[in-house]
Amino acid sequence: MVSIELKYSLRMLLKKPLFTALTVLIVAIGLGLTVYSFSLLNNLVFKPLYLNSETEIFAVEGEFDHSHLFRTRVDPYHVNQAVAQSGLFEQHGFYSRGTTFIGGGSSKHSALFTAQKMNASYISWNLASFTGIQPHFGRFLTADDFAEGAEPVVVLSYPVWQKYFNADPNVMNQQLALDALPGRIVGVMPQGFSFPDYAEIWQPLTEALVNPTKASYNSLFSYAKLKAGVSLEQAKTAFANFNKELATTIEDDYRYRIPNSGEYLQITPFKKASITQYYNVFIALLLVVFLILLLACINVSNLLLARVNERIKEIAIRVALGIPRKKLIIQMLWESVVICSLGGALALLFAAYGIELTNQMFEATFAVNHEKPFWWALTIDSTCILILIVAVAAMILTTGLIPAIKALQNDFNAVIRDGTRGALGKKAAASSKLLVTSEIALSCVVLVLATLLLSTGYFASIADYGVETEQRLTAELQLPPEKYQLRRDTEFEHQDRVARAQLFYKIKAAIENMPNFKAVAMMSQLPGTGEGTSYFEIEGRAAEVFNENPYSNNEVIARGSWQALGMRIIQGRDFDHRDGEEDLYNIIINESIARDFFPDGDAVGKRVRRVHRTGASDTWNTIVGVVSDSYHGSTMRSSSASYNSYHPNDNIGFMSLSIAIHYSGDQVEAIRTLNQAVANVDPDVGIFHVQSYDNLIRQPVKMLLSVTKIFMFCGIVAVILAASGIYAMSANSIIQRTQEIGIRRAIGIPDRKIIHMFLKQAGTQLLIGLSVGVALSVAIANYISDTIIINPESYGIALFAIPTLISLMVLLATIIPTQNVLRLEPSDALHYD
C-alpha cells in the first residue's frame, strides 16, 4: 500500500519538475539555515564546556562592564571565601591573560632567534587535574613551580611546539628566554587544548596571588566545577547571599568592587561568559533564522495547498469512487515527505558549506591576535543531525498534513456538480488572509533586522575616526617586565616610570630616523580601537551625582604623536619635557569636550579630575591643550567614545603602547625597518600585532561584521521567500475567488471596483502585518543595542525601505493575479476549472 502511494506521489512530483525543484529548494534553505545557526550557537554558547569529564566548567567573575565591553576580574580572596562558605564546589582555580615573548638569539631553533609573542595564560597549579587533560609529553605545572623563588618554567601548546620548535621531542628541559629572562620548558599540551580559551603557553601564578590571606587590589578570573547534584541556580543563590553579606563588611578601600546592582561575584557557563558582548546578537540571529524557517514552512504549505487546489476535481472524483480520505491524506503526505526529505539532505550540504566558510572566517578574524577560543571550531555533530531530523518531521506535518486536511474539507459534491473549484469558504478565506498577514510580518522582521545590521556595518566601514589611515602601519610594543620593573610604593617608583617613558622616546626617535618613516605616534589605544568612558568633574562645577558629570575615554600618549595620526593641536600646547615632573598631572582634551563643556573657549588652564561611584580622585589634572577630534572604539559599539582625554606617558610609564607609523614605499619593507629600528634600541622589546591601520580599525568589529554577513544572507533569503510567498498566497486566494469575480462582473460591477476591493483587503493585511513586523523589529533591535550602536541613518533606511519594498510586493501580488482573472470572460470565470 505504501509503495503504491509513494510511487504515485513520485510520479505526480516528476510531472512538474519546476514546482518540485522550487519547493525542495525552499525547504533546503529554511532547514539549512536552521542547522547552520544551531551548530554555530551550540558550539559557541549552548553546549557546555566539559573537556575530559562529565562536569561542566563555569566562570566565576564580576559583573560584565558594558561601558567598556570587558569582563571583570575579581579578588581571589573573595572567591575563596565564597567557595568555602557555600560548600557547593568540587574544584576551582584562577587565571589571568597576558603576553610573553619567548626565545631570542640564544635559541637553537631558527624560528626563535628573534623573540616571538605568545598569548600566555598564568594559571593555578591545579589546572591539569581540573581539566583532566594530560600533557602530550613532559609534565604540566606542579605545586613546586608556584613556590617562592622557584625556577621559571613554561608549558607549550601543541601548535607552538609544532611551529616554533619543529615538533622536536628533545625540547624538554631546554632553557628558553621568557620576557628576556631564562626559563625551562617542562611540557607540551595535546593538540586542541588551549584552556582557559586561547592559551599558547602556560606559566604559573604565584601562590600569594591565588591564596591570599586578605583582600587586596589583585584581581583574577576564576574557573570552577560544581559538586555532583548541585545546580547552577543553587550556586547563583549562594553567591547572591555572599554578595549581600560582603556589601556590609567589605573594607572601604575595596568597596569599588561592588557594582551598583550589588552582584559582585557571578557564576556563568564558561562559554557564555566568553561572548557576553555578542550574546544578544547571536540570540537575535537564532530568532531570525527561526522566522525564516516559519516563512519556508508557510511558503511550502501554500505551494502544496495550491497544488492540491489544482487537483481538487481529481480528488473529488476519487472520493466519490469510495477511496478512503485517510488514504488520500497519506498520498498527499508522501509528497511532503519526499520534498522535505530531499530538502533536508540538501540542507545538510548547505549547512556544511556554511560552517566551512564560518571556520575560515574565524581564522581570518583572529589571524593577527590568535585569540580564537579553542572551542570555536564548528562541526555538524549528532545533536545537529537530531535537530535536522526533528525539523524535517515537523515540516512534513506542517507542510503536508495541514494542506491535505484543509483540501479534504471541501464540498466535493459541489465540485463534481458544477465542474469547478467552488467558491472560497469563509474559513479558507480567513486562513488565507492570516497566512498572508503572517508572511508580511515575518518577512518584515527579518528584512528590517538584516538591513539595520548591514547598514550599520557599512557606516562603520566608512566612518571617519578623525585620523589618517592611508600608508599607516600599526603595531604593539611591550617592554620586558623583569628588565623594566616598577618598584611600587618606593622612592624609585617615579624614576622607574620615567625610565620606561624614556625608552619609548628612544624607540620613537630611532623609528623616525629611518628613511622611509615620516612620523610616529605612540598611544595606549589608537583611535578606532579601545573604548569605554569614565566620568570627570570640572573644578567648581561638580554634579550632585557622580554619573551626572561629563565623561570621556582616557588614553596615554607620547608627545609629538599627533602628526602621524593626521591630528592637530587646536589650542594650547602639546606635551613636552615639563609634563614628566613628579606629581605634575597635565592633560589634553579633544575639541568636542572643549566645545561642549567649555563653550567660552577657556578650557586651557582649567582643572578636572576623575570621579567614580565610590568618590572623586585626589588628583587634579590641568588642561594644557585642545586637540582635534578622533573616535575611540568602533562606531558599531555602544561603549565607544567621541569625548577623549589624553595623558602624557612621561610620568606614567606604561609597559606597552600601540604605535602608528606614517611610512612611504612598500609595507613589507616598512615592517622590516620597524623591527630593525626597535632592535637597535633594545632587542628584548617585543613587537607584535603588526598590521595596517585600516585592518586595525576593522579588527574590533570583525566578528560583528561577520555575523552581519549572515544576516545579509538571511535578508536575501527572506526577500526571495517573501516575494514568492506573498505572491503565491495572494494569487492562490484570488484564483479561488474566480467564480465570485465572474458573478460580480456579470451583474455589472466595473473592473476597477473589483481591483479596488482586492487592494483594500490587501491593504488591511499589509497594515496589520507591517505594524506587527516593525514593532517586533524595533524590540529586537533594542535587545541587541547593548552591543551594537544602530545609527539613526540605519533606522531611517530600514524602517522606510523595507515597508516600501513589502508594500510593493503586496501591490504586485494583488494587481497581477486580479488582472489575469479579469481577462477571462464572465461566462468562463463562472465555470473556471
Supply database-style keywords.
about 850 residues, alpha+beta, ten-stranded mixed β-sheet, about 15% strand, globular, membrane, transmembrane
Give a written overview of the molecule.
This protein has 833 residues and is an alpha+beta fold. It contains 24 helices and 22 strands. The strands form 3 sheets. Strands 1, 2, 3, 4, 5, 6, 7, 8, 9 and 10 form a 10-stranded mixed sheet that branches. A 6-stranded mixed β-barrel has the order 13-14-20-16-19-17. Strands 12-21-11-22 form a 4-stranded antiparallel sheet. A hairpin with a 2-residue loop joins β6 and β7. α1 packs across α11 (325-365) and α20 packs parallel to α23. Its main location: membrane. It is a multi-pass membrane protein.
Map the helices and strands.
Blueprint: H1 2-15, H2 17-46, E1 58-61, H3 76-86, E2 89-102, E3 116-123, H4 127-131, E4 137-138, E5 153-156, H5 158-165, E6 175-178, E7 181-188, E8 201-204, H6 207-210, E9 221-226, H7 232-249, E10 266-269, H8 270-274, H9 279-310, H10 312-320, H11 325-365, H12 382-407, H13 412-418, H14 426-461, E11 472-478, H15 493-512, E12 517-523, E13 534-538, E14 551-557, H16 562-565, E15 569-572, E16 586-590, H17 591-597, E17 607-612, E18 615-616, E19 621-627, E20 644-648, E21 656-663, H18 667-681, E22 686-692, H19 693-698, H20 702-735, H21 738-746, H22 751-783, H23 792-822, H24 826-830
Helix pairs in contact: 1-11, 2-9, 2-11, 2-12, 9-12, 9-14, 9-20, 10-13, 11-12, 14-20, 14-22, 14-23, 15-18, 20-23, 22-23
